[in-house]
Amino acid sequence: MPYYHLYELNHAAMAPLRAAADMTKLYFQNPLNPLSHTNYGRQVAAGCEVLERVTRRYGKPEFGLKDTVVGGVHVPVHENIVWRRPFCNLIHFERGTEARRNDPKILVVAPMSGHYATLLRGTVEALLPRADVYITDWIDARMVPLQDGKFDLDDYIDYIISMLHYLGPDTHVVGVCQPSVPVLAAVAVMEGRDDPYVPSTMTLMGGPIDTRVAPTAVNDLAMSKGIDWFRRNVVMSVPFPHPGFMRDVYPGFLQLTGFMSMNLDRHMTAHRDYFQDLVKGDGDSAEKHREFYDEYLAVMDLTAEFYLQTVETVFIEHSLPDGKMMHGDIPVDCSKIRRTALLTVEGEKDDITGRGQTKAAHALCSNLPDDMKAHYEQPNVGHYGVFNGSRWRAEICPRVMDFILTHRQSAKGKAPAAKAVAEKPVAAAAPAPAKEKAVAEPATVAKAEPVAASTKVDPLAEILLASPRGVADNLKSITGVGPKLESALNGAGIFHYWQIAGLTDPQIEALDTKLDFRGRIARDNWIEQARKLAETVS
Protein backbone atom coordinates (compact mmCIF):
# COMPACT_ATOMS: atom_id res chain seq x y z
CA MET A 1 0.00 0.00 0.00
CA PRO A 2 1.70 3.29 -1.12
CA TYR A 3 -0.06 5.71 1.27
CA TYR A 4 2.94 5.97 3.57
CA HIS A 5 5.18 6.74 0.59
CA LEU A 6 2.73 9.39 -0.62
CA TYR A 7 2.70 10.91 2.86
CA GLU A 8 6.50 11.13 2.83
CA LEU A 9 6.46 12.56 -0.70
CA ASN A 10 3.95 15.22 0.32
CA HIS A 11 6.05 16.16 3.34
CA ALA A 12 9.14 16.52 1.17
CA ALA A 13 7.27 18.46 -1.53
CA MET A 14 6.01 20.96 1.05
CA ALA A 15 9.51 21.66 2.39
CA PRO A 16 10.18 24.64 0.07
CA LEU A 17 6.79 26.13 0.95
CA ARG A 18 7.50 25.75 4.67
CA ALA A 19 10.87 27.43 4.23
CA ALA A 20 9.31 30.30 2.27
CA ALA A 21 6.58 30.72 4.89
CA ASP A 22 9.17 30.78 7.66
CA MET A 23 11.25 33.45 5.90
CA THR A 24 8.15 35.54 5.16
CA LYS A 25 7.10 35.34 8.81
CA LEU A 26 10.53 36.55 9.94
CA TYR A 27 10.41 39.40 7.42
CA PHE A 28 7.03 40.64 8.65
CA GLN A 29 8.02 40.23 12.33
CA ASN A 30 11.22 42.23 12.00
CA PRO A 31 10.76 45.41 14.08
CA LEU A 32 12.83 47.33 11.51
CA ASN A 33 10.15 46.58 8.91
CA PRO A 34 7.41 49.26 9.14
CA LEU A 35 4.81 46.70 8.01
CA SER A 36 5.42 44.64 11.17
CA HIS A 37 3.62 47.39 13.11
CA THR A 38 0.51 47.23 10.93
CA ASN A 39 -2.47 44.91 11.10
CA TYR A 40 -1.65 43.70 7.59
CA GLY A 41 1.90 42.75 8.57
CA ARG A 42 0.74 40.89 11.68
CA GLN A 43 -1.86 38.97 9.62
CA VAL A 44 0.73 37.90 7.05
CA ALA A 45 3.15 36.78 9.78
CA ALA A 46 0.38 34.93 11.64
CA GLY A 47 -0.81 33.20 8.46
CA CYS A 48 2.72 32.07 7.62
CA GLU A 49 3.23 30.66 11.12
CA VAL A 50 -0.04 28.71 10.98
CA LEU A 51 0.87 27.36 7.53
CA GLU A 52 4.30 26.24 8.69
CA ARG A 53 2.94 24.53 11.79
CA VAL A 54 0.17 22.58 10.05
CA THR A 55 2.55 21.19 7.40
CA ARG A 56 5.58 20.29 9.57
CA ARG A 57 6.41 16.94 11.15
CA TYR A 58 6.56 17.10 14.94
CA GLY A 59 9.41 15.28 16.64
CA LYS A 60 9.30 13.56 19.99
CA PRO A 61 8.87 16.17 22.76
CA GLU A 62 10.88 16.22 25.97
CA PHE A 63 9.49 15.62 29.44
CA GLY A 64 11.24 18.77 30.62
CA LEU A 65 10.76 17.99 34.32
CA LYS A 66 13.77 19.73 35.82
CA ASP A 67 12.71 19.90 39.46
CA THR A 68 10.01 19.01 41.94
CA VAL A 69 9.09 19.72 45.56
CA VAL A 70 9.80 16.95 48.08
CA GLY A 71 8.97 17.61 51.71
CA GLY A 72 8.64 21.32 51.03
CA VAL A 73 12.09 21.54 49.42
CA HIS A 74 12.83 22.11 45.74
CA VAL A 75 15.04 19.30 44.44
CA PRO A 76 16.42 18.65 40.94
CA VAL A 77 15.07 15.83 38.79
CA HIS A 78 17.27 13.84 36.41
CA GLU A 79 16.05 11.48 33.69
CA ASN A 80 18.00 8.22 33.54
CA ILE A 81 17.39 5.27 31.23
CA VAL A 82 17.76 2.26 33.52
CA TRP A 83 16.41 -0.57 31.32
CA ARG A 84 16.52 -0.94 27.55
CA ARG A 85 14.88 -3.11 24.93
CA PRO A 86 14.54 -2.57 21.16
CA PHE A 87 11.01 -1.17 21.49
CA CYS A 88 11.11 0.49 24.91
CA ASN A 89 13.31 2.33 27.39
CA LEU A 90 12.48 2.55 31.07
CA ILE A 91 13.05 6.10 32.32
CA HIS A 92 13.70 6.79 35.99
CA PHE A 93 12.95 10.31 37.24
CA GLU A 94 15.65 10.46 39.87
CA ARG A 95 15.03 13.10 42.52
CA GLY A 96 18.08 14.79 43.99
CA THR A 97 17.06 14.42 47.63
CA GLU A 98 19.78 14.70 50.27
CA ALA A 99 18.57 11.71 52.28
CA ARG A 100 17.27 8.37 51.05
CA ARG A 101 13.47 8.37 51.23
CA ASN A 102 11.09 5.48 51.70
CA ASP A 103 8.69 6.63 48.99
CA PRO A 104 6.83 4.00 46.93
CA LYS A 105 8.21 2.91 43.56
CA ILE A 106 5.67 3.56 40.82
CA LEU A 107 5.92 2.12 37.31
CA VAL A 108 3.77 4.25 34.98
CA VAL A 109 2.95 2.25 31.85
CA ALA A 110 2.32 4.81 29.11
CA PRO A 111 -0.07 4.02 26.26
CA MET A 112 1.36 2.67 23.02
CA SER A 113 -1.40 4.14 20.91
CA GLY A 114 0.20 6.74 18.67
CA HIS A 115 1.43 9.41 21.07
CA TYR A 116 4.72 9.46 22.94
CA ALA A 117 5.06 8.84 26.67
CA THR A 118 5.55 12.59 27.13
CA LEU A 119 1.76 12.86 26.87
CA LEU A 120 1.86 11.77 30.53
CA ARG A 121 4.14 14.64 31.58
CA GLY A 122 1.44 15.96 33.91
CA THR A 123 0.87 12.48 35.33
CA VAL A 124 4.51 12.10 36.28
CA GLU A 125 4.79 15.67 37.55
CA ALA A 126 1.96 15.16 40.04
CA LEU A 127 3.38 11.84 41.32
CA LEU A 128 7.00 12.98 41.77
CA PRO A 129 6.67 14.80 45.12
CA ARG A 130 5.54 11.62 46.88
CA ALA A 131 6.91 8.75 44.79
CA ASP A 132 9.94 7.30 43.03
CA VAL A 133 8.61 7.32 39.46
CA TYR A 134 9.54 5.22 36.43
CA ILE A 135 7.81 5.38 33.03
CA THR A 136 7.81 3.26 29.89
CA ASP A 137 9.19 5.25 26.97
CA TRP A 138 7.95 3.35 23.91
CA ILE A 139 10.06 3.70 20.78
CA ASP A 140 8.68 4.71 17.37
CA ALA A 141 8.43 1.51 15.32
CA ARG A 142 9.71 3.26 12.20
CA MET A 143 12.97 3.85 14.06
CA VAL A 144 13.51 0.17 14.95
CA PRO A 145 15.43 -1.85 12.31
CA LEU A 146 13.72 -4.93 10.95
CA GLN A 147 16.57 -7.07 12.28
CA ASP A 148 15.47 -6.33 15.87
CA GLY A 149 12.49 -8.63 15.41
CA LYS A 150 8.78 -8.36 16.03
CA PHE A 151 6.81 -6.76 18.84
CA ASP A 152 3.27 -7.90 19.62
CA LEU A 153 0.90 -7.90 22.59
CA ASP A 154 2.67 -10.91 24.13
CA ASP A 155 5.98 -9.05 23.95
CA TYR A 156 4.32 -6.01 25.56
CA ILE A 157 3.25 -8.18 28.50
CA ASP A 158 6.72 -9.71 28.73
CA TYR A 159 8.26 -6.22 28.80
CA ILE A 160 6.02 -5.23 31.73
CA ILE A 161 6.94 -8.39 33.66
CA SER A 162 10.63 -7.84 32.97
CA MET A 163 10.43 -4.24 34.19
CA LEU A 164 8.67 -5.33 37.38
CA HIS A 165 11.45 -7.87 37.94
CA TYR A 166 14.02 -5.14 37.42
CA LEU A 167 12.31 -2.81 39.91
CA GLY A 168 11.98 -5.55 42.50
CA PRO A 169 9.44 -6.11 45.28
CA ASP A 170 6.85 -3.62 46.52
CA THR A 171 6.45 -1.86 43.17
CA HIS A 172 3.19 -0.19 42.18
CA VAL A 173 2.08 -0.21 38.55
CA VAL A 174 -0.17 2.41 36.94
CA GLY A 175 -1.64 1.61 33.51
CA VAL A 176 -2.99 4.64 31.65
CA CYS A 177 -5.63 3.93 29.00
CA GLN A 178 -4.52 1.27 26.46
CA PRO A 179 -1.97 -0.48 28.77
CA SER A 180 -4.71 -1.38 31.25
CA VAL A 181 -5.30 -4.67 29.42
CA PRO A 182 -1.64 -5.81 29.18
CA VAL A 183 -0.95 -4.61 32.74
CA LEU A 184 -3.86 -6.65 34.10
CA ALA A 185 -2.76 -9.61 31.98
CA ALA A 186 0.86 -9.29 33.16
CA VAL A 187 -0.18 -9.31 36.82
CA ALA A 188 -2.43 -12.34 36.20
CA VAL A 189 0.45 -14.20 34.52
CA MET A 190 2.81 -13.33 37.39
CA GLU A 191 0.28 -14.48 39.97
CA GLY A 192 -0.14 -17.74 38.05
CA ARG A 193 3.62 -18.28 38.39
CA ASP A 194 3.67 -17.32 42.09
CA ASP A 195 6.11 -14.59 41.09
CA PRO A 196 7.61 -12.93 44.21
CA TYR A 197 7.87 -9.62 42.31
CA VAL A 198 4.17 -9.24 41.66
CA PRO A 199 3.28 -5.55 42.21
CA SER A 200 1.70 -4.47 45.47
CA THR A 201 -0.97 -2.43 43.65
CA MET A 202 -2.14 -1.81 40.13
CA THR A 203 -4.07 1.29 39.13
CA LEU A 204 -5.96 1.10 35.83
CA MET A 205 -7.06 4.46 34.44
CA GLY A 206 -9.49 4.85 31.55
CA GLY A 207 -8.63 1.43 30.12
CA PRO A 208 -10.70 -0.76 27.75
CA ILE A 209 -10.95 -3.88 29.91
CA ASP A 210 -14.41 -4.78 28.54
CA THR A 211 -15.45 -2.66 25.55
CA ARG A 212 -18.92 -4.22 25.45
CA VAL A 213 -19.83 -1.98 28.39
CA ALA A 214 -21.06 1.44 27.17
CA PRO A 215 -19.36 1.11 23.75
CA THR A 216 -18.01 4.30 22.18
CA ALA A 217 -17.48 5.27 18.54
CA VAL A 218 -13.99 3.76 18.71
CA ASN A 219 -15.43 0.44 19.89
CA ASP A 220 -18.20 0.46 17.29
CA LEU A 221 -15.70 1.03 14.47
CA ALA A 222 -13.67 -2.03 15.45
CA MET A 223 -16.75 -4.23 15.71
CA SER A 224 -18.24 -3.06 12.41
CA LYS A 225 -15.09 -3.52 10.30
CA GLY A 226 -13.49 -6.74 11.48
CA ILE A 227 -9.78 -7.55 11.69
CA ASP A 228 -9.34 -8.27 7.96
CA TRP A 229 -10.44 -4.73 7.09
CA PHE A 230 -7.79 -3.28 9.41
CA ARG A 231 -5.14 -5.60 7.99
CA ARG A 232 -5.93 -4.52 4.43
CA ASN A 233 -6.42 -0.80 4.98
CA VAL A 234 -4.21 0.51 7.78
CA VAL A 235 -1.09 -1.68 7.74
CA MET A 236 1.75 -0.19 5.68
CA SER A 237 5.49 -0.68 5.21
CA VAL A 238 7.94 1.93 6.51
CA PRO A 239 9.51 3.71 3.52
CA PHE A 240 13.19 4.46 2.97
CA PRO A 241 15.25 6.08 4.53
CA HIS A 242 13.84 5.43 8.03
CA PRO A 243 15.78 2.86 10.13
CA GLY A 244 12.68 0.65 10.21
CA PHE A 245 12.56 0.42 6.40
CA MET A 246 10.28 -2.45 5.26
CA ARG A 247 8.76 -3.01 8.72
CA ASP A 248 4.97 -3.37 8.65
CA VAL A 249 3.42 -0.71 10.87
CA TYR A 250 0.24 1.12 11.73
CA PRO A 251 1.37 4.70 10.92
CA GLY A 252 1.06 7.40 13.52
CA PHE A 253 -0.35 9.87 11.00
CA LEU A 254 -3.37 7.58 10.51
CA GLN A 255 -3.94 7.43 14.26
CA LEU A 256 -3.65 11.21 14.46
CA THR A 257 -6.19 11.55 11.66
CA GLY A 258 -8.59 9.40 13.64
CA PHE A 259 -8.05 11.40 16.83
CA MET A 260 -8.60 14.75 15.12
CA SER A 261 -11.63 13.63 13.11
CA MET A 262 -13.48 12.86 16.35
CA ASN A 263 -13.37 16.58 17.27
CA LEU A 264 -12.50 18.25 13.97
CA ASP A 265 -14.53 21.39 14.61
CA ARG A 266 -12.74 21.93 17.93
CA HIS A 267 -9.31 21.69 16.28
CA MET A 268 -10.30 24.06 13.47
CA THR A 269 -11.59 26.56 16.00
CA ALA A 270 -8.38 26.25 18.02
CA HIS A 271 -6.24 27.10 14.97
CA ARG A 272 -8.49 30.02 14.05
CA ASP A 273 -8.15 31.35 17.59
CA TYR A 274 -4.39 30.83 17.39
CA PHE A 275 -4.26 32.98 14.24
CA GLN A 276 -6.29 35.71 15.94
CA ASP A 277 -4.13 35.58 19.09
CA LEU A 278 -1.02 36.09 16.96
CA VAL A 279 -2.59 39.08 15.22
CA LYS A 280 -3.67 40.60 18.55
CA GLY A 281 -0.27 39.95 20.09
CA ASP A 282 -1.67 37.68 22.82
CA GLY A 283 1.57 35.81 23.40
CA ASP A 284 0.38 33.80 26.43
CA SER A 285 -2.59 32.25 24.60
CA ALA A 286 -0.47 31.58 21.52
CA GLU A 287 2.18 29.84 23.62
CA LYS A 288 -0.43 27.60 25.28
CA HIS A 289 -1.61 26.58 21.80
CA ARG A 290 1.94 25.74 20.75
CA GLU A 291 2.61 23.70 23.88
CA PHE A 292 -0.55 21.64 23.44
CA TYR A 293 -0.20 20.96 19.73
CA ASP A 294 3.54 20.33 19.87
CA GLU A 295 2.59 17.36 22.04
CA TYR A 296 -0.68 16.39 20.38
CA LEU A 297 0.68 16.38 16.81
CA ALA A 298 3.81 14.36 17.68
CA VAL A 299 2.94 10.76 16.83
CA MET A 300 4.74 7.45 16.49
CA ASP A 301 4.15 4.29 14.46
CA LEU A 302 3.07 0.99 16.04
CA THR A 303 4.18 -2.41 14.82
CA ALA A 304 1.48 -4.05 12.70
CA GLU A 305 1.47 -7.24 14.76
CA PHE A 306 0.94 -5.35 18.03
CA TYR A 307 -1.80 -3.15 16.58
CA LEU A 308 -3.72 -6.00 14.93
CA GLN A 309 -3.44 -8.31 17.94
CA THR A 310 -4.65 -5.53 20.25
CA VAL A 311 -7.62 -4.66 18.02
CA GLU A 312 -8.61 -8.31 17.69
CA THR A 313 -8.05 -9.31 21.32
CA VAL A 314 -9.44 -6.22 23.06
CA PHE A 315 -11.99 -4.62 20.74
CA ILE A 316 -13.36 -7.45 18.57
CA GLU A 317 -13.12 -10.75 20.45
CA HIS A 318 -13.14 -9.33 24.02
CA SER A 319 -10.80 -12.16 24.96
CA LEU A 320 -9.86 -10.92 28.45
CA PRO A 321 -13.37 -10.53 29.91
CA ASP A 322 -14.46 -13.76 28.18
CA GLY A 323 -11.59 -15.67 29.78
CA LYS A 324 -10.09 -16.62 26.40
CA MET A 325 -7.00 -14.41 26.34
CA MET A 326 -3.70 -16.25 25.97
CA HIS A 327 -0.15 -15.17 26.72
CA GLY A 328 1.79 -17.45 24.42
CA ASP A 329 0.32 -20.84 25.30
CA ILE A 330 -0.67 -19.80 28.84
CA PRO A 331 -4.28 -18.74 29.62
CA VAL A 332 -4.61 -15.32 31.25
CA ASP A 333 -6.71 -16.00 34.35
CA CYS A 334 -7.45 -12.86 36.36
CA SER A 335 -9.06 -14.92 39.12
CA LYS A 336 -5.53 -15.90 40.19
CA ILE A 337 -4.83 -12.34 41.29
CA ARG A 338 -4.78 -12.42 45.11
CA ARG A 339 -1.85 -10.25 46.24
CA THR A 340 -2.12 -7.12 44.07
CA ALA A 341 -4.62 -4.48 45.22
CA LEU A 342 -6.72 -3.01 42.38
CA LEU A 343 -7.80 0.60 41.85
CA THR A 344 -9.76 1.62 38.74
CA VAL A 345 -10.34 5.22 37.68
CA GLU A 346 -12.78 6.49 35.04
CA GLY A 347 -13.95 9.84 33.70
CA GLU A 348 -17.65 10.66 33.59
CA LYS A 349 -17.45 12.18 30.09
CA ASP A 350 -14.87 9.83 28.56
CA ASP A 351 -15.76 9.43 24.86
CA ILE A 352 -12.90 7.01 24.09
CA THR A 353 -13.21 4.48 26.93
CA GLY A 354 -16.85 4.27 28.02
CA ARG A 355 -17.99 4.39 31.64
CA GLY A 356 -17.76 0.96 33.22
CA GLN A 357 -15.20 -0.48 30.80
CA THR A 358 -12.34 -0.11 33.29
CA LYS A 359 -14.47 -0.97 36.32
CA ALA A 360 -15.10 -4.37 34.68
CA ALA A 361 -11.66 -5.43 35.98
CA HIS A 362 -13.13 -5.89 39.46
CA ALA A 363 -15.46 -8.67 38.32
CA LEU A 364 -12.57 -10.45 36.60
CA CYS A 365 -10.43 -10.39 39.78
CA SER A 366 -12.97 -12.55 41.58
CA ASN A 367 -10.60 -13.91 44.24
CA LEU A 368 -9.27 -10.52 45.28
CA PRO A 369 -10.68 -9.47 48.68
CA ASP A 370 -13.06 -6.52 48.67
CA ASP A 371 -10.77 -4.52 50.94
CA MET A 372 -8.13 -4.68 48.19
CA LYS A 373 -10.43 -3.20 45.53
CA ALA A 374 -11.49 0.39 44.92
CA HIS A 375 -13.13 2.32 42.08
CA TYR A 376 -13.34 6.06 41.49
CA GLU A 377 -15.23 7.98 38.82
CA GLN A 378 -14.21 11.61 38.34
CA PRO A 379 -17.19 13.86 37.49
CA ASN A 380 -17.06 16.23 34.53
CA VAL A 381 -13.84 15.02 32.91
CA GLY A 382 -13.17 13.36 29.58
CA HIS A 383 -10.55 10.82 28.63
CA TYR A 384 -7.46 13.01 28.97
CA GLY A 385 -8.72 14.62 32.17
CA VAL A 386 -8.38 11.27 33.93
CA PHE A 387 -4.57 11.51 33.89
CA ASN A 388 -3.82 15.16 33.16
CA GLY A 389 -4.98 18.63 34.12
CA SER A 390 -6.32 20.28 37.25
CA ARG A 391 -8.79 17.51 38.19
CA TRP A 392 -6.02 14.93 37.98
CA ARG A 393 -3.73 17.00 40.21
CA ALA A 394 -6.35 18.04 42.76
CA GLU A 395 -8.71 15.07 42.98
CA ILE A 396 -7.49 11.92 41.23
CA CYS A 397 -3.77 11.84 42.03
CA PRO A 398 -4.26 12.21 45.82
CA ARG A 399 -6.64 9.24 45.74
CA VAL A 400 -4.17 7.16 43.74
CA MET A 401 -1.35 7.97 46.17
CA ASP A 402 -3.52 7.22 49.22
CA PHE A 403 -4.43 3.84 47.73
CA ILE A 404 -0.78 3.04 47.01
CA LEU A 405 0.38 4.07 50.50
CA THR A 406 -2.42 2.05 52.11
CA HIS A 407 -1.55 -1.16 50.28
CA ARG A 408 2.24 -0.98 50.07
CA GLN A 409 3.96 -3.93 51.73
CA SER A 410 5.67 -1.83 54.39
CA ALA A 411 2.23 -0.58 55.47
CA LYS A 412 1.04 -4.17 55.80
CA GLY A 413 4.12 -5.15 57.78
CA LYS A 414 4.97 -8.08 55.51
CA ALA A 415 8.17 -8.84 53.68
CA PRO A 416 7.52 -9.63 50.03
CA ALA A 417 9.39 -12.96 50.09
CA ALA A 418 7.38 -14.16 53.08
CA LYS A 419 4.20 -13.05 51.39
CA ALA A 420 5.10 -15.04 48.28
CA VAL A 421 5.72 -18.16 50.37
CA ALA A 422 2.42 -17.70 52.18
CA GLU A 423 0.56 -17.63 48.90
CA LYS A 424 2.17 -20.77 47.48
CA PRO A 425 -0.14 -23.35 49.15
CA VAL A 426 -3.12 -21.68 47.50
CA ALA A 427 -1.79 -22.04 43.98
CA ALA A 428 0.41 -25.10 44.37
CA ALA A 429 -2.25 -27.64 43.44
CA ALA A 430 -2.60 -26.66 39.80
CA PRO A 431 0.17 -24.46 38.40
CA ALA A 432 3.14 -26.41 39.79
CA PRO A 433 3.43 -29.02 36.98
CA ALA A 434 3.19 -26.40 34.23
CA LYS A 435 5.70 -24.22 35.99
CA GLU A 436 8.50 -26.78 36.25
CA LYS A 437 9.45 -26.45 32.59
CA ALA A 438 9.26 -22.68 32.21
CA VAL A 439 10.94 -21.56 35.45
CA ALA A 440 14.05 -22.99 37.05
CA GLU A 441 12.45 -24.23 40.32
CA PRO A 442 11.80 -20.91 42.10
CA ALA A 443 9.27 -22.64 44.37
CA THR A 444 11.90 -25.14 45.56
CA VAL A 445 14.31 -22.36 46.47
CA ALA A 446 11.65 -20.42 48.36
CA LYS A 447 10.54 -23.46 50.36
CA ALA A 448 14.08 -24.58 51.14
CA GLU A 449 14.76 -21.43 53.18
CA PRO A 450 11.47 -20.28 54.70
CA VAL A 451 13.14 -18.71 57.73
CA ALA A 452 15.49 -16.60 55.62
CA ALA A 453 12.65 -15.57 53.36
CA SER A 454 10.66 -14.29 56.29
CA THR A 455 13.51 -12.27 57.73
CA LYS A 456 15.05 -10.84 54.56
CA VAL A 457 13.34 -9.02 51.75
CA ASP A 458 15.88 -10.28 49.23
CA PRO A 459 18.83 -12.73 49.35
CA LEU A 460 20.81 -10.08 47.47
CA ALA A 461 20.46 -7.57 50.30
CA GLU A 462 23.71 -8.85 51.86
CA ILE A 463 25.84 -7.88 48.85
CA LEU A 464 24.07 -5.00 47.09
CA LEU A 465 25.57 -1.53 47.43
CA ALA A 466 23.99 1.90 47.05
CA SER A 467 27.22 3.13 45.42
CA PRO A 468 30.63 1.62 44.58
CA ARG A 469 33.30 1.35 47.27
CA GLY A 470 35.96 3.50 45.70
CA VAL A 471 36.31 2.97 41.96
CA ALA A 472 33.83 0.57 40.38
CA ASP A 473 35.31 -2.49 38.66
CA ASN A 474 35.00 -2.90 34.90
CA LEU A 475 32.36 -5.64 34.84
CA LYS A 476 32.60 -5.77 31.05
CA SER A 477 35.83 -7.74 31.60
CA ILE A 478 33.60 -10.71 32.45
CA THR A 479 32.78 -12.66 29.31
CA GLY A 480 29.07 -12.30 28.59
CA VAL A 481 28.73 -8.86 30.20
CA GLY A 482 28.36 -5.99 27.76
CA PRO A 483 27.70 -2.27 28.34
CA LYS A 484 23.93 -2.73 28.75
CA LEU A 485 24.30 -5.62 31.18
CA GLU A 486 26.96 -3.76 33.16
CA SER A 487 24.57 -0.81 33.43
CA ALA A 488 21.79 -3.15 34.62
CA LEU A 489 24.10 -4.72 37.23
CA ASN A 490 25.19 -1.28 38.46
CA GLY A 491 21.55 -0.23 38.63
CA ALA A 492 20.82 -3.27 40.79
CA GLY A 493 23.70 -2.42 43.16
CA ILE A 494 26.55 -4.60 41.84
CA PHE A 495 29.75 -2.68 41.07
CA HIS A 496 32.62 -5.02 42.03
CA TYR A 497 34.02 -8.43 41.08
CA TRP A 498 33.85 -9.65 44.68
CA GLN A 499 30.07 -9.20 44.71
CA ILE A 500 29.70 -11.62 41.80
CA ALA A 501 32.46 -13.98 42.98
CA GLY A 502 30.66 -14.64 46.27
CA LEU A 503 27.17 -15.27 44.89
CA THR A 504 25.28 -18.13 46.53
CA ASP A 505 22.66 -20.26 44.78
CA PRO A 506 19.69 -18.29 46.24
CA GLN A 507 21.40 -15.04 45.27
CA ILE A 508 21.99 -16.31 41.72
CA GLU A 509 18.31 -17.23 41.47
CA ALA A 510 17.25 -13.82 42.77
CA LEU A 511 19.62 -11.98 40.43
CA ASP A 512 18.47 -14.06 37.45
CA THR A 513 14.88 -13.13 38.20
CA LYS A 514 15.56 -9.49 38.99
CA LEU A 515 17.53 -8.72 35.83
CA ASP A 516 15.78 -11.22 33.54
CA PHE A 517 18.87 -13.04 32.23
CA ARG A 518 18.08 -16.50 33.58
CA GLY A 519 20.91 -19.02 33.27
CA ARG A 520 23.55 -16.61 31.98
CA ILE A 521 25.56 -16.53 35.22
CA ALA A 522 26.11 -20.29 35.15
CA ARG A 523 26.35 -20.57 31.37
CA ASP A 524 29.14 -17.98 31.08
CA ASN A 525 30.79 -19.02 34.38
CA TRP A 526 30.63 -15.50 35.83
CA ILE A 527 31.60 -16.57 39.35
CA GLU A 528 34.90 -18.19 38.39
CA GLN A 529 35.75 -15.29 36.08
CA ALA A 530 34.93 -12.77 38.82
CA ARG A 531 37.12 -14.63 41.36
CA LYS A 532 40.14 -14.45 39.08
CA LEU A 533 39.50 -10.80 38.22
CA ALA A 534 39.04 -9.94 41.90
CA GLU A 535 42.54 -11.27 42.61
CA THR A 536 44.01 -8.83 40.09
CA VAL A 537 42.50 -5.78 41.81
CA SER A 538 42.88 -6.83 45.44
Instruction: Using the 3D structure, state the CATH architecture of the largest domain.
Output: 3-Layer(aba) Sandwich
Number of strands: 14
Indicate the CATH class of the largest domain: Alpha Beta
Give the strand order of the largest sheet, numbering strands 1, 2, ... along the chain. Answer: 1-2-3-5-4-6-7-13-14
CATH H-level name of the largest domain... which superfamily? Answer: Alpha/Beta hydrolase fold, catalytic domain
Percent of residues in beta strands? Answer: 5-15%
Count of DSSP H/I helices: 24
- Overall mean pLDDT stands at 86
Q: What structural category characterises the helix and strand content? A: alpha/beta
Give the number of domains. Answer: 3
Radius of gyration: 25 Å
Overall, the morphology is globular
How many angstroms does the end-to-end distance come to? 63 Å
General description of the model:
The protein is of the alpha/beta class and 538 residues long. α2 runs antiparallel to α3 and α3 packs antiparallel against α10. The chain has helices at residues 3-13, 15-29, 39-55, 121-127, 153-167, 180-192, 217-225, 227-233, 252-262, 264-280, 283-296, 304-316, 361-364, 390-407, 409-412, 416-427, 431-438, 442-448, 450-455, 483-492, 497-501, 505-515, 520-523, 526-537, and strands at residues 67-70, 73-85, 88-95, 105-109, 132-138, 171-176, 201-205, 236-237, 248-250, 302-303, 326-327, 330-331, 341-347, 373-378. The longest helix is centred in the last third of the chain and has 18 residues, at 390-407. The chain contains 24 helices and 14 strands. The chain has three domains: 3-57 and 252-300, no CATH class; 67-220 and 305-412, Alpha/Beta hydrolase fold, catalytic domain (Rossmann fold, 3-Layer(aba) Sandwich); 458-537, no CATH class. Residues 414-456 have low confidence and may be disordered.
